[in-house]
Amino acid sequence: MADDNGQDKLHTPPDDNGDEAALARKIILVLIVILALWGAAIFTWGIPGLYIPALASVPLIYLVLIVVAKG
Prior knowledge:
By secondary structure, this protein is mostly helical. 72% of the residues lie in helices and 0% in strands.
């Protein structure tokens, strides 16, 4: 269905979520970089490169869990 201007009445404009999409891209990029660095650490130092970054991230994850639990 088209109106007098020839525009489609059934078409709805896309939501303006450019900021959300940009934020999602940044988060994904950061995660990819972190995983690549972790992979490089494993390649360089072997097993210690696997578990030392995981152990170092425990306080951060613990803090995130506390913040999420508080709401």
